[in-house]
Specification:
single chain, binds beta-D-glucopyranose, alpha/beta
């Protein structure tokens, strides 16, 4: 306290010490227990003592790294004190407020641009793979694992929690997200955030909202009515925020109905902060700010990586706006308060960074997620699981000798031990940025050999069709790996597998009827060869021990239990937008000079399987589909209505293997309308074992959003409840009456 003076100064300083250090220190000083000050109280105390410049400093971020060789501003030297992650916001050392050290992202501590030479981490399977597990614990454990690694590496913010809905199965970032259903995405992303923050690392749900395609993401406007927005993309965010309570929300690049997401009053002030009562802070996506006063008044609390924006909007211009009253000083206080409040709420101010990483334990978390997320799409004649007695196996394609594929962009993780293989990219924005395709070092070929020690296992790369066919002819069983690399910055050109892999699969399957296709894809793909291939496994991007996870499923060490979190269309013609809007143009990184355009969300609330149902379109594989090595019988359905719907039913394992089943519950409102997933249960059952399962719907899932009420309006009458193994495999149905009601937004 030297030099601090006495009297009021000392009292103020003590208050700050309490605010920063928390209740334990305060209690010790007073020698008596004192009630814990809330995160809000602590933030308010700090705000009172901050100078204008210190407040401004908290709401303006820096790019935290130097991208050598990249064009300005990406190659600018990182600010002193930054850890080399994607973002950095200086702290207030005199008050013990740490800097925000921000790193991507939700699939592991990312380092795709090799921003921190030699820094490696454990990669989780893709977001779609995790969502396909339908197991909230998988998402929580993955989050906790990534949070622990982030903390060990000195980061206290993870730019993790991708909750954008998969409205288009060609969106290049679907692999970072959790599929097309708001309930499934909300639960899984919420749990992942909860896991991250359990390690005192702030999680940043993103990209709020409707950042549903990469093509023209900086200039497009997602155009849809408020009802549809609330029932789809926003509902996923709402549920995830309720579950995970993320310290921060990242607003998206795109516009919604004409207004940029980072200066969108409806999204930020009205929905997020007023209706949902969100208390954390809104940070912009990197290069996503377009104004000072409009953004600050519309609810943006912090400009990230300010050098990425056209102007230094939250630098000198914000100071001037506060001084001349265009942005009220109270609003600046609110912005800074929100940042501090989340730091206290998540505990980053007290958290210790550093420490060792238990790589094996973390890889196991990733492996379990991969094993639960693999989806057995087809298994004619029970080809899988493979018998241990099989003597000749031909493994073909997908760099299966080296490792497993991962997705590109800001979420890219460099795995411990380094990439197994790096392949240069030929075209597109990702290529211009010097990115490479990364394979994680978990070779499926090695894992297959490990589980079939008595077999001869050959490998052909698949680039020579004749050689692959010759190898297939020699084998009892073929395991053919097909891949589709996806990345931030660009969408899939089509639903087809790239690089003539369809022809390879068709030729190999014609040569050997016992061909298993293993897909490592970032998105759904079409399968013109499906009729000729008895078994197909969707393994997504399976992460740190993906090769082992795939082999364990192939040989039945694990019975597959994943279910699709996204519809696999039969063709692009079935989609709401057969051609991706804006795909006739190539875009610059930050959209400078690119033509603005609108994306008409003609599907409204009917996203994914709801669109297919509304149009009577038969997908290749429906939402929620996934086979098992066992069989399950459903029975004993009873339902309850009233202010919401409940269903109770039994699932019995009537097969011969211990296996997990995801039982899905859908509801259709009276008078037709969209049939929606209202809940599910995942249960592990031994052969013969039966379990009674209960599902109660969140009433918002039964309601229509009425923007004029405003609120969630349920329709009075009998809802149909379907219980089954997928959205298209209903085993039990019943009806129950729901009361008419309006729930506040
Ligand atoms: C991405 C964000 C990411 C940020 C920082 C942006 O390009 O859209 O998801 O967190 O970069 O790397």
């Amino acid at each position: 306290m030297r030099g601090l003076g006495t009297g009021r100064g000392q009292v103020a300083m003590l208050a700050i010490a309490v605010a920063v250090a928390g209740p334990a220190v305060a209690a010790a000083r007073h020698h008596q227990p004192s009630p814990a000050p809330s995160a809000d109280d602590r933030a308010s105390q700090v705000i009172k003592t901050l100078s204008l410049d210190e407040k401004l400093q908290l709401v303006r971020g820096y790019f935290g790294a130097t991208l050598k060789g990249a064009p300005p501003p990406l190659n600018a030297p990182a600010p002193e004190g930054a850890h080399g992650g994607a973002g950095y916001v200086p702290g207030v050392p005199r008050l013990g407020i740490p800097a925000l050290q921000e790193s991507d992202a939700g699939l592991g501590v990312a380092n795709g641009g090799h921003l921190r030479p030699g820094d490696e981490a454990t990669p989780m399977p893709s977001g779609l793979a995790q969502a396909a597990s339908w197991n909230p614990q998988v998402a929580y454990d993955g989050g906790a694992m990534i949070g622990a690694e982030a903390a060990a590496k000195g980061f206290n913010v993870l730019l993790a929690g991708g909750a954008d809905l998969a409205r288009d199965p060609r969106n290049g970032r679907n692999f970072e997200y959790a599929g097309e259903d708001p309930l499934l995405a909300g639960v899984m992303v919420g749990q992942s955030i909860k896991g991250i923050q359990s390690r005192h690392v702030i999680s940043t749900i993103k990209h709020y909202a409707a950042n549903d395609q990469e093509t023209g993401r900086m200039v497009l406007s997602a155009d849809l009515d408020e009802t549809s927005l609330r029932e789809t993309d926003l509902l996923a965010f709402e549920l995830a925020i309720e579950t995970g309570r993320p310290g921060s929300v990242m607003c998206a690049y795109n516009r919604i109905n004409g207004d940029y997401a980072c200066e969108n009053d409806l999204l930020l002030n009205q929905v997020l902060k007023r209706d949902w009562g969100y208390r954390g802070w809104v940070m912009s996506d990197w290069g996503g700010v377009h104004s000072t006063v409009k953004a600050a008044l519309s609810g943006l609390d912090q400009e990230s990586a300010h050098s990425f924006d056209r102007e230094d909007f939250f630098g000198a211009p914000l100071k001037a706006a506060v001084l001349d009253g265009r942005v009220p000083p109270a609003r600046l206080d609110d912005m800074a308060h929100r940042v501090l409040r989340s730091m206290f709420a998540v505990g980053v101010a007290e958290a210790k960074s550093g420490g060792a990483i238990d790589r094996d334990a973390h890889a196991e978390v990733a492996q379990r997620a991969a094993e639960e997320g693999v989806v057995l799409l087809r298994n004619e004649g029970g080809l899988l699981p493979l018998a241990p007695t099989v003597k000749r196996i031909a493994v073909i394609g997908g760099h299966a000798d080296a490792g497993v594929l991962s997705g590109g962009g800001s979420s890219q993780v460099i795995p411990f031990g380094g990439a197994a293989l790096e392949v240069p990219i030929k075209s597109g924005l990702a290529a211009a940025l010097g990115a490479r395709i990364i394979y994680h070092p978990s070779s499926p070929l090695a894992a297959i050999r490990g589980l079939a020690p008595g077999a001869t296992v050959t490998f052909s790369a698949g680039d020579d069709v004749a050689a692959a066919v010759a190898a297939a002819r020699q084998a009892e069983v073929v395991i053919l790996f097909a891949e589709q690399w996806q990345t931030e910055f660009q969408d899939a050109g089509s639903l087809s597998l790239p690089d003539q892999q369809d022809a390879l699969i068709a030729a190999v399957a014609a040569a050997n009827p016992h061909t298993v296709v293993v897909l490592e894809t970032g998105n759904p793909v079409t399968m013109p060869w499906l009729d000729g291939t008895p078994a197909v496994l969707e393994a997504w991007y399976p992460g740190a021990r993906g090769g082992q996870a795939i082999a364990n499923v192939l040989f039945g060490k694990v019975s597959p239990s994943g279910k699709l979190p996204i519809t696999f269309p039969a063709s692009a013609a079935q989609l709401p937008r057969p051609v991706i809007p804006g795909s006739d143009h190539s875009y610059s990184l930050f959209g400078a000079g690119d033509p603005a355009f609108g994306v008409p969300y003609v599907e409204g609330s009917a996203v994914g399987y709801k669109w297919f149902a509304a149009h009577g379109a038969k997908p290749l594989f429906p939402f929620g589909h996934g086979l098992s090595y066992s069989r399950f019988a459903y029975g004993g359905l009873s339902t309850r209505g009233g202010s919401t719907l409940s269903a109770s039913f039994t699932v019995r394992n009537v097969g011969h293997r211990a296996a997990a089943e995801v039982a899905e519950v859908y509801a259709t409102p009276p008078g037709g309308g969209l049939r929606r997933l209202i809940g599910w249960r995942k249960v592990m059952l031994r052969p013969g074992e039966v379990r009674r399962l209960d599902v109660t719907a969140d009433p918002r899932l039964l309601a229509d959003y009425d923007a004029s009420a405003p609120g969630w309006r349920t329709r009075a009458g009998a809802y149909r409840i379907d219980v089954g193994a997928s959205s298209a495999d209903t085993r039990l149905s019943a009806a129950a009456k729901v009361d008419s009601q309006i729930l506040k937004p």
